[in-house]
Amino acid sequence: MTMVMFYHKCVTFVTTQIVLTFYSGFSANSWFTSIHFTLYNLTFTSLTNLLFGFFEKHLTDEQLLQHPRLYRLTVQHANLRVWYIFLWILDGVWQGLVIFYSVYFFLAGNEGHMSAIFLTLDASPRNQFDFTLCGCACLVYVIISVNIRTMLHTRDFNVLFIVGLVITAVGNLAILMIIQLFVQPWHGEFYSYIKLAQSPTFWLTLPITLLMAGLPGLIWRIYSDYWWKDQMRRASKNSAAPCVSINHEIT
């Protein structure tokens, strides 16, 4: 399951860059720098997925002891079937598209409206979102979105997983703040995340983007909970009933 989540978060990240090429004349321009590409799988999104793989239990010990037939639904590696991986990839594409177009329409501006602004004390005319600042906003949206996707799939919020979430949030915030302070003043990332924090449009766009990007995952989780409850109900009703086909496993 952890491997599938890694596919998902990488697809989400790359989708934003692929779509950008259609709006940048198929040039080599990128919203992300080399350090973003390096840290994305190293610190930004890896810890929550690894902790999920180590500690997640979508069925408790009591549930498995009460319904032993459910073991057969958890040991056949149905989560590695092609159709299941394909669904996660589609979810990653959806998240990438939602995040890109949220930044494109709400922050970047186009021929129909001006770009978003960040608040400054001196009312500087240079307080509009530029190409680099849009990329920083996109990166933040992607990081938050894929980590929330992991949380949506998690049923066992144990202490270690919660600590991992806190470390991910605080650690990544510290990394981004350090990056922006140790670049040259002419660099596009200079104080970029402080500028994001000073933008009302960025904060208003954040919940809309996360809700739309996470909607398929939320629907998936609701159906998954219903499916497992139905399996436990069937097991309670008739413990001798044959196990359902593994092709129907949804976790």
What does this protein look like?
The structure is a single chain. This protein has 251 residues and is an all-alpha fold. It has helices at 2-23, 34-44, 46-55, 61-66, 82-108, 131-153, 159-181, 192-197, 200-237. α1 packs across α5, α5 (82-108) runs antiparallel to α6 and α6 packs parallel to α9 (200-237). The longest helix has 38 residues, at 200-237. The chain is elongated and about 70 Å long. The termini are close together.
What is this entry, summarized?
It is found in: Membrane. It contains nine helices and no strands.
Which helices and strands appear, and what pairs or packs with what?
Elements lengths: L1 H22 L10 H11 L1 H10 L5 H6 L15 H27 L22 H23 L5 H23 L10 H6 L2 H38 L14
List SSEs in N-to-C order: HHHHHHHHH
- From the N-terminal CA to the C-terminal CA, the straight-line distance is 9 Å
Strand content: under 5%
Radius of gyration: 21 Å
Task: Determine the fraction of residues in helical runs and give it as a percent range.
Answer: 55-70%
Instruction: Work out the helix count.
Output: 9
Residue-averaged pLDDT: 83
Largest sheet data: none
Q: How many DSSP E strands?
A: 0
Name the structural class: mainly alpha
**Residue windows where pLDDT falls under 50 for at least 5 positions:** 243-251
Q: What would you call the quaternary organization?
A: single chain
What general form does the structure show? Answer: elongated
